[in-house]
Amino acid sequence: MPIYLPETTASRTEALTPRQIVTELDKYVVGQHAAKRAVAIALRNRLRRQKLPTEMAEEIAPKNILMIGPTGVGKTEIARRLARLVQSPFIKVEASKFTEVGYVGRDVESMVRDLLEVAINMLREEQRAGVREKARQHAEERLLDRLLPPVVPTPKADEPIEPPEHAQRTRERLREQLKGGRLDQREIEIEAPERAMPAFEVITGSSVEEIGINLKEMLPGFFQGKTRTRRLKVPDALEALGEEEEQKLIDMDSVARSAIHRVEQSGIIFIDEIDKIAGREGGHGPDVSREGVQRDILPIIEGTTVNTKHGTVRTDHILFVAAGAFHIAKPSDLIPELQGRFPIRVELEALTEGDFVRILTEPRNALLKQYAALLGTEALDVTFTADAVRRIAEIAALVNERTENIGARRLHTVMEKLLDEVSFDAPDLVDKTLGVDAAYVDRMLGGIVKDEDLSRYIL
């Protein structure tokens, strides 16, 4: 019997061939074709596995990916966009935040628990969308009950209880006024539940994440059932009641079960800075725990069962994408067992001046489009000429070459300094048009670029 993902995720994934996945990623990330091909193949292999009989599918391990390349070239963005593309639960963790048991830091299993929380939020939002209309109807009835409490007359023998006709007509008129917005300025008191307090956890293991006892489950009366009276305007009251009704209609047990299944079958964990924990035994001081961290992470990647407050999660088929600059360390500095768990290796290229031109203009979320949209909220029409774009890219590439190469992130610092003056003055400008050309770029940035010491601090 084949293994299937929840319908929405499975159908979305099945519709995309590796070539289509690369095409979609091209809309957001410039270049890095080899990395895009690698993640597209890994995603398609995941779908192929799900179509196999269960006995065979269980034997096929995910083809985890190790991305090697300098910062700011698109490693994280490729993995994040991939997850959004197929609606998979996704988290990014930094390997340097974890430490070997006994050192200060996070427990490695927390990455799986965090991924499950992401999946639960995804499923909860999906269910909320399905019950929103029904919840609003319930909230509307409760609001009308507050505005016009129902009148129940004393019934005669063997007669059903019915509200008087005039009360019903008044209720319908109120409903029309509510929908027409004519009650928006009216205030009303409602009983709303107190904000849920976070669950307290009693530590029974070596870290906070090793949840032993959940006090919220032990003392439900202490954390639940408390309400307070709030005085709100009608639209706010309707929204608050709607949220409360949505929570009542959502089956959280079902959400948790579905979330666990989605994590196990389609979850993606991006482990950044894995080069920071590359190292073997024999170190001293802060380096002593590097191999220990690798050995702690290894079972999670190999496949283990992690206990969470929502149930157990198997990590056998979660896709792991690791990334690092590997300027000093090499992939071969990782322990052999960990190296073997990342069979796909892709090297990302450093970005050139030409790449910067494309990053500024081509992607859907291109930087120039973002800044033009931001300043457009001030009714300021900003345009960039082709020679200005080339000059911005040239400056970013030059500063990266002179100082630390931080890839495309350098464009953010350059753009902020370039538009610093107009961003400050935009609300007060009389002339609401600005054409940014190469001369404008040189006027704003030329002096900083010429002074190498100054550019190290400002750009």
Describe the structure.
This protein has 459 residues and is of the alpha/beta class. The protein has three domains: 7-118 and 258-347, Rossmann fold (3-Layer(aba) Sandwich), CATH 3.40.50; 130-257, no CATH class; 353-458, Helicase, Ruva Protein, domain 3 (Orthogonal Bundle). It contains 20 helices and 13 strands. A five-stranded parallel beta sheet has the order 2-7-10-1-11, with helices on both faces. It has a two-stranded antiparallel ribbon with strand order 3-6. The chain is flat. The model is unreliable at 1-11, 197-213 and 215-221 (pLDDT under 50).
Keywords:
single chain, 459 residues, alpha/beta, Rossmann fold, Helicase, Ruva Protein, domain 3, 3 domains, 5-stranded parallel β-sheet, two-stranded antiparallel sheet, flat, disordered N terminus
Short account of what is shown:
This protein is α/β, with parallel strands linked by helices and 459 residues long. β8 and β9 (311-314) form a beta hairpin. Helices cover 51% and strands 13% of the residues.
Blueprint (SSEs and pairs):
Layout: H1 7-14, H2 18-26, H3 33-50, H4 54-57, E1 65-68, H5 75-86, E2 90-94, H6 110-147, H7 165-179, E3 187-193, E4 201-203, E5 211-214, H8 215-218, H9 220-223, E6 227-233, H10 234-249, H11 252-266, E7 268-272, H12 290-302, E8 305-308, E9 311-314, E10 319-324, H13 336-340, E11 344-347, H14 353-361, H15 367-376, E12 381-384, H16 386-402, H17 409-418, H18 420-425, E13 433-436, H19 438-450, H20 452-458
Parallel strand pairs: 1-10, 1-11, 2-7, 7-10, 12-13
Antiparallel strand pairs: 3-6, 4-5, 8-9
